[in-house]
Every structure is written in C-alpha cells, then in structure tokens.
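Risk register update: the risk of archive-format incompatibility is retired. Evidence:
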Amino acid sequence: MSVRFLFVACLALAHVPCSANGQCIPKPDSAKEEIFSSVKNLQAQGVNVGPAGIELSLEEWGDHVVATFRDYAGSSNPIETTKLQGTLEESGSECKISLFGRNRHGKMEIRGTIGTADFQGTVIRQVGKDTFSERVALRRKVAETDVRIGKLSESGVSRCASTSFALMA
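Archived output:
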C-alpha cells in the first residue's frame, strides 16, 4: 500500500461530517451546546447602533433539545426571547431539528437542518391570529474558548483513523 494512498485516505477522513459518523445526536448521558446566529453590529454614520439579527442557542441531551431564540434590533438586550423545546433526528447525513414554544405574542415553531457551519430552517411565529413564516440561514458561532478550531478532536481522529486503518489492512 502506498504512502500516497494512506495520505489521501487520512485527508478524506478529516472532511467526513459529524453526522456521517453518527454524532448528530449526543449520547444520552452527555450534553452538547451549539449557537447559531445572524447577529451583526450595526453602525449608522460611523456611530455604533448595536446588534441586530437573530440567535438560536441549543442545549442537546440525546435527541431532546432545549433552545433559546433571541431577536435583536439595535440594543444589546434582545427585544424578544423565546424558550423552546423539541427533538433532534438523524436522517441520512442530515441532522434535523424541530422546536416548539411560545412567547408573549403567541406560539413559535422552528424547523430546520443543522450543518457543519450553519443552521438552515424556517421560523414560524404566531402574533395574535396571524401566522408569519420566514426562512433563516444562521452561521455557527464558535465559542472564544474553543481551542479546537481548525482541527479534529482527539477522539474523532483516533476513532476515524482506527476504523479506516482496520478496513485498509
């Protein structure tokens, strides 16, 4: 077996998404936290106005999810914060999420797909008797304390490598 083949195989493993490894849903005895956001700091005529956009924070326990949806409109305090609960479902190579909750305006529902770097979905809000639906694309927010940026975690590398090398042998 050539060194070139082994090198290419290792590179290919580094790009396998987590969901392909069955890691979409955390183990029941462990939690996983993720934040997705479109929040940007607004400026008007060179003056800092404040953050605007939406943010979705997820705390995942197995296939159960507790979420917080925040809506910002120019202030560091969100204009609306909604608590939601729902489920994660692994479907092929996708990680689908369904969330339900309510705020002072009415019911809220969020459905979508969690990707490696983003969340793509639909936010459905009830305001009185009216229902509003909007498509959202939120980028994954990486914690400043996450020192694993740009590399696989040790457990991911060893698990992938041992599986691959066992198959190649």
